[in-house]
Fold these 2 entries.
Entry 1:
Amino acid sequence: MVIRYDKAFIQDFKETDEGYLTITACPITRPGVFPYRRTDGGLSMEAKLPDELFSKTTVLSANAKPMTDDHPTEPVTAANYNKYSKGMTHNDAHVLDNKLLVSFTITDAETIKKINDGKRELSIGFQADVTKETGVYNGMQYDSVQRNMQINHIAIVDEGRAGHEVAIRGDSAAFMIDTKDKQTGGSNMPKLIIDSKEYEVDPVVKANYDAMQAKLDAAEQRSSNVEKVEGERDALQSQVDNLTKELQTAKENSLTGDALDKRVQARVELVSAAKKFLGDSVDLVGKTDRQIKEAVITKTNSNFKGDGKSDDYINAYFDSMTAMATEKGFTASAVFNDAKDKDKEAEEDIEKQKNNRLNMNKKKEGK
């Protein structure tokens, strides 16, 4: 068990006929992550989680507890009650708007004067089991959790380092600080390094800075992950685009229906015509139409070279050879015997076949 002190603020109060001050349903603490000064001077970010703070035993512990002027140096008990007590809390402790509230009455004249003069901050003194646990609550990182909280007293204290404005907003500025004399800070103040310069700052400022820096780091990490995912997405999209183009090309080149029938028939006729020149035993499986036609041309003209020749030239030459074969009865075991120069005749026939192909194409376009 360790002793902790939280701060809140007295806002509305009224004076009784006896001169006492009564404050009704005053917020004394709320869930959150708060900085606490450790005994070694370091700072611990401790979480008051709703399930712990608003547990039945913790809420009830705020009832009928002494009000003190500053925190005493020891827990308040029956043995020292008269020494420290300046009033008492009522029996109406409850939870509202995510805060723990309780009413109380101040009966000590000197303490009442201090309140009227502006000493209006409240700081609960309580015992808790502090366990080492890390996590995030409401965007604030914590390294410890307060459990089994039991309120011992509520002190009226001077303005804390968090400042008057923080308390007025209802924020609980939590410190292990008792009086103004203990708020001097000194070398134990947290330090921030900005542009290579070191500054001593309020613990709340340091805690908020660390929390914002953590959020920034997380945002930058998310941004980096987004850029990585976008890069992977773009690469995949490029692959999809390429595959789509390949599929479209394959569809355009594929033959179906009548077109496929015509292609098959043309191939059968080509192989049949080629075997008249090359013999029935020739293996034409896997060869392209052009390769078959060049083989036929070479059979009739051993000096022929197809390199650099266009498909139209090869087609016309082949058509010429088949036409001559039909006319002269060419077979694989015989060659042409004609007085006319064979090459010259072939060239003339090639030109004729090319013209025939051009005319056929023009007729098709005119349909």
Entry 2:
Amino acid sequence: MSKFSIEHINVLSINAYYDKKTTTQINETSSLLKYTSQHFHCHVKLTLNECIANEYWSIGLIQACDYMYLENRYGNYGSTLWEFHPLRSGRHKMVNDSDGNQYPFYSLINSKYVIERGNVTNNLIKLTYEDHFYPTIAWELPYYNGIKLTNVIRKQNFWVWLVAIKHIKQQKFNAQYDEVYILNTISWYYQLDMIIDSYQPIGKRLQSIYDKQYNEPIILDDNRTLPLSALNPPHCNAAQSLIWYPTNRNDQSKLLIPPKQIIVPWNIWLNEMKLNQNITLNKPNYCQLVKNWLNDKEIGITTNSTIQLNHHWKTSTINLTTRINRKLIRNWSNS
């Protein structure tokens, strides 16, 4: 039998969509607003030709975020913002969005398939994952005279890659030695805008919500390479921090929730996040320093995989109007 290579992978179908059966669910408690967003799904079917693998391979789905704006507004007094320092500082192009257990893949379960050394049989492989958001937000800020929540704004852009990785030394990903082959690339965008009246009784505080995703996820005609930051730590949940930004310039910003992982020393992180105003903020013991990719170069070998897309995806992929609208939304979100 022949030696396993990228040509032995046949992508049969890709389906990425917002689940119409799920909507934004709101839960108002005495102290917190909780919401669960609409779900994003990604499903892939592929087959492998019979052959022999001389190295370890991994096939799976990688997700990364290159734009995030998460604001909880408290009237004219200011806002709390969830932020990724690697993006805000411009040091990294993206932040890997995984559970952190098996970089670079989204998760250990269902979104990754491992090919061991030896005989490879001809079988059907299904890769899948689901993503949604479930934050909690304080109705009021006691450390700032009890000001009350008025708006929740969320805008995020994600990239998804179906990749095959040839591991040179071991199954754990190594950016220096491993070969990354890009089979397909997907992009999707999520937006949410809520108006809140925190003076109303519990259960009646949500006044309006805008959560319609007008553009379906897009499978790119031409694959995009991956920046190193999309493949390595930190991941989104570890990189994010929550900071209070007052409108009054005489007041100081306040770090509410520190990150779990940083890519620069703590004093540099504070300086780049504008949190060095005459206040000593000690680094939490749990906060770890991870690699800063000084040259966040893009890697990956693009391939011409065998794909049979259904009519829905053929239409959404080549629809010029959808692409133009997508660009307009991204330009608007960055304004």
